[in-house]
Amino acid sequence: MRALILAVVLYPWRFAQWMRREWNVFWHRPADPGVLGLIRVLTGLILIYSHGVWGLALEDFFGPYGWVSRDLARNAPGVDQAYSFWWYVPESWLWPAYLASMAVLVVFTLGLWTRVSSILAFLVVVSFVQRVPEALFGLDKLQVILTFYLAIGDSGKALALDSRQCPARPTAMANLGQRLIQVHMCMIYLFAGLDKLRGTSWWTGEAMWLALANHEYRTIDVTWLAWHPWALNALCHCSIILELSFCVLVWFPMWRPLVLTAMIGLHVGIGATLGLWTFSLIMIVGCLSFLPNASVRLAIDESARRFGRIAAGRDSRRRG
Known about the structure:
- By secondary structure, the protein is an all-alpha fold.
- It has one domain (31-319).
- The chain has helices at residues 2-28, 34-54, 58-62, 70-74, 94-110, 114-131, 138-152, 172-196, 200-204, 207-212, 229-249, 256-274, 277-287, 293-319.
- The model has no long low-confidence stretch (mean pLDDT 86).
């Protein structure tokens, strides 16, 4: 009886010790930077494309006489305390500032001087978003989130020009950046699913049809699904269940491949049917944070060896 009482009394202390140990392992155990380097490259490519599109109408978006003036943007709700270097760029420096921003994103993607270029890339992304808040969409939010966490973690230790001078090895900062992305992706899907439950169309199974039949976004005609309401209801409810359960099932190794495959399939379907490819791609990049570090490292090393053999073969042919 005395042993049972002692076990009950000591349980809270042991549980607290276990929680502290698991917390430190989760956030601070060194991890291979390969996954973070892969996310940096893919995120950088999306940043170059999306910010390159701004250049097609730079004067209209960022010019002093554009669609949204600087004063209007600075006084928009929730933006009055926001930062953007575009507030201070004179009209004559509009294009130089834009080209410098694109250069920063290219350098960041290549992984050159990543500790500095990652911070500059984050400032560039935030500045673009805050200058035109009326054009803020999910893509822009995900770009800010991923760029911020890549600036925190050691994203330049793998798949980067910097990694030639600094060989990749497990670091605590690489683990921290990867964990932050993972946790944030779980929160995004959880609250996206909970928010959908506030709408009656998701309960009745009509929400998927309302999206697929919308002429503004439709790229593939799938209106034939109107004659198969059971399929629309299944797609609707399965997407809700997937979003709500993602934050739990993705942490179990046996469930993770199935959950990630289903989520990637969901985003590919969104891109194909609604034309939201950039948003779908950035969400898929975020999901890649759950890839196993060991597998990504093996793929990187194997690619490097093959590239080295190809380069050596070319050199030998030139000498011959």
